[in-house]
Specification:
Shape: rod-shaped
Strand content: 5-15%
Number of strands: 6
Distance between the termini: 186 Å
Structural class: alpha/beta
Radius of gyration: 67 Å
Strand order of the largest sheet: 3-2-1-4-5-6
Length: 413
C-alpha cells in the first residue's frame, strides 16, 4: 500500500456502553482500531497513525497522540481512552462533536513530520449525530479541498446516523489516481464484530475491496474473505510464500471438491426426477390398462346378460305357444271321448223312434268295422287277438238271439 498518514477518531461517549456489540461498543471499537493500526503500519514502514478521542476532559475533542510510527505509543493511546459524557449542545442534548474532532484531525495532519504521502481520517461513530446536513456537507467539502480522505465506520444508531453520514462522505469524496473513490462509509450491523467487517472493507483491503463494494452495491456490511490476497487465503505471498502457496493449493482442492459434490447432487436430483417421472408414467399406463380391461369385462357381462334375457324370452314364447296347442289337442280328445260316452249311455227306445235312415248304438256295436276301429284306438289292445275275436263273435250271436226274441214278442203282442 502507499505511504499514508492516518488519524483515527474514537467515540468514547456514554452510548459506547451499549452491549449490542460483543462485549460492548467501546471494546468492539478498540478491537477494530487495533486491526486498522496494524494494517496501516505494516503496509508501509513510513506510514504514521495518530489517535483522537472525540470527547475529551475539556469541551471538544482531545488529541491523544500525533501521527507516529511507534506502535507502543499508539496502542497505549488506544487502550487508555475512558468513557466520558459529552457537553450539551445548543438544544441541551449531549452529543459527540464530530465536526470539531475532524477539524482537530485536519490540523494534526497538517503539522505531520513526513509531508509525503496521502492523508486520511478514520472516524468510529457510535452515538447519534445532531449536526445539520449543511454543516456536514461543508465539513466534507473542506476535507476534499485539503486532499484529506474520510472513512466513516458506524456502530449502532444506524437508522439515525446513516443518512447524515452518507451526506458527509459524499461531500468529502474524491477520485484517486487509480480512479477509485477515496472516501468510504461502512455500517456494522448489531451483533457483528466490526473487525470482521473491516477485514473485507475498502478501509483495510484497499482498492480491490472498494471495487467489490461498487459492484455489490455497497455501503457497509459484511465482506468475509474479500481481502486483497483472497486467492492466497488473505496471506501476502511476499511475506510468507510457503504458507500462501499451501493455502492456495488447499483452497483449490476444496473448490474442486465442492464443485464435484455439487455436480453429484445435481445428477442425483435429475436421476430422481427421471425415475419419478417414469414411475408415474407406468402407473398411469397400468391404471389405463386396468380401466380398459374393466370396461371390456363390463361390456362382456352386459352382452351375456342381454343374450341370456333374449334366450329366456324365446323359451318363454315357445312354451307359451306350445301349451295352448297341447291344451287344444287334449280338449279335442276329451270332447270326442265325452261324445262317445254319451252315445253309449243313451237308452234304446222301443217305441219305433228309429227310422230307416238312423242307426242305434246297438247296431253300431254290431258293425265289425266300427268295433275294430274302436278297439284299435284304445292303448294296449290288439283287435286281431283271437280271444278278442271269439268274444266279439259270441257277443254278436247273443245280441242277435235277443233281438230275435224281441221281434217275436212284438209280433205276438
Amino acid at each position: 500500500m502507499v505511504l499514508e498518514s492516518c488519524m483515527i477518531l474514537l467515540d468514547n461517549s456514554e452510548f459506547m456502553r451499549n452491549g449490542d456489540y460483543i462485549p460492548s461498543r467501546l471494546e468492539a471499537q478498540h478491537d477494530a482500531a487495533n486491526l486498522l493500526v496494524g494494517t496501516k503500519t505494516q503496509s508501509n514502514p513510513e506510514s504514521t497513525v495518530g489517535v483522537i478521542a472525540m470527547t475529551g476532559e475539556v469541551d471538544g475533542a482531545e488529541l491523544l497522540i500525533s501521527p507516529t510510527d511507534d506502535m507502543g505509543k499508539i496502542l497505549t493511546a488506544l487502550h487508555g481512552i475512558p468513557i466520558r459524557s459529552p457537553a450539551a449542545n445548543n438544544n441541551n442534548k449531549t452529543t459527540t462533536d464530530i465536526i470539531g474532532a475532524i477539524q482537530v484531525a485536519s490540523l494534526a495532519l497538517k503539522h505531520r513530520r513526513n509531508k509525503n504521502g496521502s492523508q486520511r481520517v478514520v472516524v468510529f461513530l457510535g452515538s447519534p449525530l445532531a449536526n445539520d446536513v449543511r454543516v456536514l456537507q461543508k465539513c466534507g467539502r473542506q476535507l476534499k479541498k485539503n486532499n484529506i480522505a474520510l472513512d466513516l465506520v458506524c456502530l449502532g444508531e444506524l437508522e439515525e446516523n446513516e443518512p447524515l453520514a452518507q451526506e458527509l462522505v459524499n461531500a468529502a469524496n474524491g477520485v484517486g489516481d487509480s480512479g477509485e473513490r477515496t472516501c468510504h462509509l461502512v455500517t456494522v450491523p448489531a451483533g457483528v464484530l466490526p473487525s470482521d467487517v473491516l477485514v473485507g472493507s475498502p478501509i483495510v483491503a484497499g482498492s480491490a475491496a472498494a471495487a467489490a463494494m461498487a459492484v455489490g452495491g455497497a455501503g457497509g456490511g459484511d465482506f468475509p474473505g474479500a481481502a486483497s490476497f483472497a486467492e492466497y487465503g488473505g496471506v501476502d505471498p511476499n511475506m510468507d510464500p510457503e504458507l500462501a502457496m499451501a493455502l492456495r493449493v488447499s483452497m483449490e482442492e476444496e473448490r474442486a471438491r465442492q464443485e464435484r459434490l455439487a455436480a453429484e447432487r445435481a445428477a442425483a436430483t435429475e436421476e430422481s426426477k427421471t425415475t419419478s417421472t417414469t414411475e408415474q408414467g407406468e402407473e398411469l399406463a397400468q391404471e389405463d390398462t386396468a380401466g380398459a380391461a374393466a370396461m371390456e369385462e363390463e361390456d362382456d357381462e352386459d352382452a351375456l346378460l342381454q343374450q341370456a334375457l333374449a334366450m329366456s324370452m324365446q323359451e318363454h314364447t315357445a312354451t307359451t305357444t306350445a301349451a295352448p296347442a297341447e291344451t287344444m289337442e287334449m280338449d279335442d280328445e276329451e270332447d270326442a271321448e265325452m261324445q262317445m260316452a254319451l252315445q253309449m249311455s243313451m237308452p234304446s227306445f222301443s217305441s219305433g223312434a228309429n227310422t230307416e235312415g238312423q242307426t242305434t248304438p246297438q247296431q253300431r256295436f254290431q258293425d265289425p268295422e266300427f268295433v275294430n276301429q274302436l278297439l284299435s284306438s284304445m292303448p294296449g289292445v290288439d283287435p286281431n287277438d283271437p280271444d278278442f275275436q271269439q268274444a266279439l263273435q259270441a257277443l254278436q250271436r247273443g245280441e242277435n238271439k235277443d233281438q230275435k226274441k224281441d221281434n217275436d214278442a212284438k209280433k205276438d203282442g
